[in-house]
Amino acid sequence: MKKLTLLGVAICALLGSAAAVDSALAMRCGSRLISEGDPRDKLANECGPPSNVETWEEERYHHYDSLPPSNQYREFERYGSAYRVKVLVRVELWTYNYGPSRFMDYVRIENGRVVRIYSGGYGY
C-alpha cells in the first residue's frame, strides 16, 4: 500500500513539474493583460518597448488535399497526391527584462500577432 501511495505522489509531482514548463497564455503589464492572439500594436501600447527584439523570416508549407484557394495563393506545387504552398512568416521575439528581481518575459510574434508568451530566468 505504501508503494502505491509513493507512486501516486511521484506521478503528481511529475505532472506538476510538466505543467510548470508549459508556456503562459497571458502576460501582465501593470494592470493590463496581453494574451495570445493580440496584435503587436496592442502589445507595444500596453507594455511599452521591449528591451530586445530579434527578427527573422521562416519558410513554411501549407498542405491541401485539393487545389488551394486562388484568392490567397498564386503559386503552388504538387506534393504527391496533394498540393503545397510555400508561405513566408515574419517572426519577432520580444524580450522584456524587468531587472534582477523578476523573471524575463518572451513574446513570440508571427505576422503581427502574438502566438506564444513564456517566461525565462531572472533578468539582469
Summarize the structure.
The chain has 124 residues and is of the alpha+beta class. It has one domain. It contains 2 helices and 7 strands, in the order αββαβββββ.
List low-pLDDT spans.
17-21
> Could you estimate the helical fraction of the residues in percent?
10-25%
Strand content: over 45%
Taken in chain order, the helices and strands follow as HEEHEEEEE
Q: Number of folding domains?
A: 1
Q: Which class of secondary structure composition applies to the elements? A: alpha+beta
Tell how many strands the DSSP assignment holds. Answer: 7
Structural write-up:
The chain is an alpha+beta fold and 124 residues long. It has one domain. Helices cover 23% and strands 46% of the residues. The protein is built from two helices and seven strands; from the N terminus they run H-E-E-H-E-E-E-E-E. The strands form two sheets. Strands 3, 4, 5, 6 and 7 form a five-stranded antiparallel β-sheet that branches. It has a two-stranded antiparallel sheet with strand order 1-2. The longest helix is centred in the N-terminal third of the chain and has 20 residues, at 2-21. The model is unreliable at 17-21 (pLDDT under 50).
